[in-house]
Amino acid sequence: MRPWWLLPCLLVLAGCQISPAVLPSAEPRPAAECRWDADGTEADEWVRRALTALENDGFVVRHTELTLGLVNAERTRTVPGYGGFDERDRLGLFGGYGVGGGRGGVSSGVMIGFGGGGGRIMHDATRLERVSVVADDSWVRVSRDIQVIDWRGEIRESRSASDARFCTQLRNAMTTARAGEDS
What we know:
Helices cover 26% and strands 26% of the residues. The protein has four helices and six strands, in the order αβαββαβββα. Mean pLDDT is 77; it is low at 95-102 and 115-119. Strands 1, 2, 3, 4, 5 and 6 form a six-stranded antiparallel beta sheet that branches.
């Protein structure tokens, strides 16, 4: 028996493997203030300044590479009450708010080991902010992204956050670090 039917199936499946018409890109685009000239300062000096500025701003440095002029840092913050109205939390043993209703619902009868009583449990989300600074002998570039991760570990928001305000503040902190070292 020959698998003559295999060839048409492979042709159909091969047609499903196409590349997207538009490649993904950072949205919104990074601000122009997130890239500036190095003004004759060496890349390793910019890396040192970035380390100081980011640590002073509450970031934890995760990785540095002096030969590449790279610094990666992140910080986390709790987002209280984020996703407090998630419908999946409201379902109890027998459905919504009736018998066995969860998350502030009222239970009736005797239930052992099911919970769902009058207690209100809040599950806060975490905001993860990552920053990368890349420095060359001729330019410095900053990129930042923010993710909000709920208590289950699911990513609820993810966006590029390389905005003008953050990049200007970081650049000022990095140049202030230089002025403080020069005196």
